[in-house]
Amino acid sequence: LHEGRPHVLDWIKNQKIQLIINTPSGEDAYADGRLIRRTALGYKIPIVTTIASAKATAAAIRSLQSQPLGVKALQDYITN
Questions:
Q1: Residue 41 lies in domain
Q2: What is the mean pLDDT of each run of 10 residues along the chain (80 residues)?
């Protein structure tokens, strides 16, 4: 955010971003991360804040690209 505009907050506000992965390290990064998270929340953009959750998110996206998510009734998951 300190490097000038346009920056990530502008991209969020202009709906240019659909998912944010933010794993800050350092004081400035934590302050920026707080602003990014708050802005993302306001614009209903999903945000991932750890490496583990970023890996899980990437795996889920890859899985959805190879086979679409289906909808089933809860009863369909129960075997008798």
A1: 8-77
A2: 82 94 84 91 95 96 89 82
